[in-house]
Amino acid sequence: MVAYKSKVVERIQLPSRERRTAALEEAGYNVFDLSADEVFIDLLTDSGTGAMSDDQWAALLRGDEAYAGSSSFDRLESAVADVMGFEHVVPTHQGRGAENVLYGALLSEGDVALNNTHFDTTRAHVSNQGADPVDCPVPSAHDPEADEPFKGNFSLERARAAVDEVGADRVPLVILTVTNNSAAGQPVSVENTRRVRAFADEIDAAFVIDACRFAENAYFVTRREDEFAEATVAEVAREQLGSADALVMSGKKDGLVNVGGFVASDDEALFERCKQRAILYEGFPTYGGMAGRDVAAMAVGLREAVEEAYIEDRVEQVRELGAMLEEAGLPVYEPVGGHAVYLDAGAAFPGIPADEFPGQALVCELYREGGVRGVELGSFAFPETDRPELVRLAVPRRTYHREHFEHVVETARAVLERREEVSGLEIVSNPAVPELRHFSAALEPVSADPPIAVDGGSE
Q1: Are 373 and 41 in contact (CB under 8 A)?
Q2: 141 contact partners, CB below 8 Å, separation of at least 6
Q3: Which member of 107, 369, 395, 446 lies 3.0 to 4.6 Å from 129 by CB, making a disulfide possible if both were Cys?
């Protein structure tokens, strides 16, 4: 059942194929460098790209822009307490600001951070503290065809092996990302969350939940975990998040806003440390780098995110896109996650080796063919890891409709039909931070002229 209707529309236009080809070359075969007005259907990310509700727009107009003690912050604090169960909140300009604040307070040189799977900015922030990010996914997480309900779970076996190798004193932090974005948006069970909590206690580590998509994860729990078959999404969210010592949150996902994030905790000492870091990096602790109006809109968005009608419509729309792509013959990661459909580019382009980035090749061809922008989350985005060659098609919240999806499917089908014509890519300009190279590296087809000199850093 559709949970909303449109009040405002935006015109979009598909550039000519010639212009798309030229734009791709000008962008160095990196779709992050494409101009948004040259993209027809933008599935690059669901972060901050969705449509806000009328109640959120009303909150935006009522926002209190006081530098200190804003009533907008009071509303956010109340929403976090009611929806997520945490008393103390430190707002930030977005999720990576929250990561900087929290992980800077918890990690030091030589530490090890364990995560079901680190996403790009999480990995970079851990590394920026001189710590080592170690992934602990369950084995099925890297199997696009495995039909298991909670492929986003944290592997306690891998975690214990890591602790045995480096010693518990070097592991002050255990992170659980829900849903597991780097594992195709797969959910994490409440049972697994409780076990990770117990493991963190065993090794005397802080337990942090990356809660960016907490509501989507809770929806899957109500559908797949027997204990919660009769529970509401709101009830599951509080139960699952309540296991953590702290949360790191990008409000641009399940906060349903275009900017903003926060750290939340019931630990007074940790809250104070985060607050002081936020003053240095983000702003005064009652606005945290956001305008008061954005704080107010996020307070409303958190409450809307756990409404049954909204979250069912959201997750089922993504599932529908996955089903349409699979029917068209695309190799879809199964089961489909909560915020995006992930395509197995290795299966789509079996003739392109991993070191020629089949996922990035697929991303480029989707744009060339139909102006559709996705993102590679394989060997290009995550160098020196063993992750599968995935392409994420992230669906912005409350933005696109079936007609848009039909265009995406026809575009993908056309790319698949001419797969033998598609060549791999090589990096010709690399940024100095390898964990974030997919944001700004330049590439070219391997069949092109010899590459130009690399600008700093290494592959």
Answers
A1: yes
A2: 116, 117, 151, 152, 153, 180, 183, 184, 186
A3: 107
Contact 205, 173 (CB under 8 A): yes
Q: Which residue has the tokens 């197995």?
A: 344
Q: Are 304 and 64 in contact (CB under 8 A)?
A: no
Average pLDDT over residues 253-273: 98
Selection from 312, 324, 332, 328 nearest residue 392 by Cα = 332
Number of other residues whose CB lies within 10 A of the CB of residue 228: 21
Amino acid at 360: Q
Distance CA 325, CA 216 (A): 21
pTM, to two decimals: 0.93
Cα separation, 353 vs 107, whole angstroms: 37
Chain segment 302-361, per-residue pLDDT in tens: 999 999 999 999 999 999 999 999 999 999 999 999 999 999 999 999 999 999 999 999
Q: CB within 8 A of 37, min separation 6: which ones? A: none
pLDDT digits (tens, 9 = 90+) for 107-125: 999 999 999 999 889 999 9
CB 29 within 8 A of CB 257: no
Distance, in Å, from the CA atom of 65 to the CA atom of 283, rounded to the nearest integer, reads 13
Alpha helices by DSSP H, 248-290: 268-281
Phi-psi region of 324 (alpha: psi -120 to 50; beta: other; left: phi over 0): alpha
- Tokens linked to 199: 């493991």
Tell me the backbone φ, ψ of residue 58, rounded to 5 degrees: -65, -40
